[in-house]
TrEMBL record:
Catalyzed reactions: 2 a phenolic donor + H2O2 = 2 a phenolic radical donor + 2 H2O
Name of the protein this chain belongs to: Peroxidase
Site (described: Transition state stabilizer): R57
Cellular component annotations (GO), alphabetically ordered: extracellular region
Residue ranges annotated for the Plant heme peroxidase family profile domain, each copy included: 20-296
Binding positions (Ca(2+) 2): T167, D215, T218, D223
PROSITE patterns: PEROXIDASE_1, PEROXIDASE_4
Residues binding substrate: P136
Amino acid sequence: MMIMMMIAVGRGNEYEYDDDLSFSYYHGSCPQLERIIHTKINQWLKNDSTLAPALIRLHFRDCTVRVSSKSLRGFEVIDDIKAEVEKQCPKTVSCADILTTATRDATVAAGGPFWMVPYGRKDGRISVAKEAESVPRGHERITDLIELFQSKGLNILDLVVLSGAHTIGRSSCGALQYRLFNYKGSGKPDPSINPKYLNFLRRKCRWASEYVDLDAVTPKAFDVQYFKNLQNKMGLLSTDQMLYSDSRTAPLVSAFASQSAEFHHQFAASMLKLGNIVDYLADQDGEIRLNCNYVNA
């Protein structure tokens, strides 16, 4: 049965119903698709569990900006899945659909929730390098993040719950050294950081090339500890911690910190919305790429 999905379309803040997204889209043309993706994801994550947060990050970037992501970590997983899908279902399944489903399966493998993925996305033929500048880097204002999300048809609830993906994964120390040593040019650390946590981070991040867990307490568990960390002034990135200091987002942080089931439920709902973002112009001129690294000749 064709499922009508409400999706955000790249024309201001308007929405449209897209008849092409359906849970049964590949039932006839590639019925083994989800099995292929599920098997491949388990194989990759068995060897390297850090690929789960990498895929979530890759998916967010792919859904929010029109710029090539092939140099980012996790793309090798998508390339591998695409190669196997092309063997069994040639010229049928888009890279966008593969990435969306791979992210879902990686989330589940990491202990997160399951959600059903509708299919029928096309791969874009447009890459706008300037849009890479809009990808959050951890030092924006909350207002900037809210405006970015709203421009994609997402809301404040989506912003807070999807930030909860930082319950797993790592960040480079280079992204936060300014918080530790020279916050806003003061020559001092960010005063919002828990003093004990600050001491830990300063020892851990002596070199910008090092990495540190986004969640210092339960770094490998997909849980609500991330939100509890914010309450304890242990948000790694500035944008994480500001979620608890901004009156628009703080109540949601508090709610999720004490409601694990609600976090999982809403994370699935917001990931579904994220995966259904469609750029109107790209969708009109989209294609099924034969190789996810390049547009078709």
